[in-house]
């Protein structure tokens, strides 16, 4: 028998000797209440013992060392669950914000479409002035752009806004209550 086979046999004997000990220490944590499978933790413990054993580290008290390995494995799994919950919570928060944002955009776009339809119903001269006004141009800027007097522009704007208000009310939109 070569040294590799001897090591494997020694490793198997160690696991068999401490199998109940490992299971008892894993089950004392009541992992089911955290949604963990004790077999997963047990597998991780075996891997850690295997790495330790094959790195030829000298261990004087196996039971104490195995208990540390069990404890660290359980803690690792609990930390992993906590990280996943934080990521899930963060992703859910982002999704909720995105949904709220999308609802605001759709509400804005539908309101924009409604106002656009109402503006298109105005007579041509008032429609031009109201459109420019809705693009945040001042009466003076609109008058200069259209080569009209400030008085003519102001009168068409006020009449156009009055017509727009009526058109929106006819569409059952009360602009004063919109956010």
Shape designation? rod-shaped
Largest sheet: none
DSSP strand count: 0
Distance N terminus to C terminus?
84 Å
Question: What is the total domain count?
Answer: 2
Strand content: under 5%
Helix content: over 70%
Order of helices and strands: HHHHHH
Q: Any chance you could write out the topology, listing elements then pairs?
A:
Elements: H1 3-27, H2 38-54, H3 62-120, H4 124-134, H5 139-146, H6 150-170
Helix pairs in contact: 1-2, 1-3, 2-3, 4-6, 5-6
Brief digest:
With 179 residues, this protein is an all-alpha fold.
Main traits of this protein?
single chain, 179 residues, mainly alpha, 6 helices, 79% helix, rod-shaped
Give an account of the 3D structure.
Helix content is 79%, strand content 0%. It has helices at 3-27, 38-54, 62-120, 124-134, 139-146, 150-170. α1 packs antiparallel against α2, α4 (124-134) packs across α6 and α5 (139-146) crosses α6 (150-170). The protein starts with a helix and ends in a 9-residue tail after the last helix.
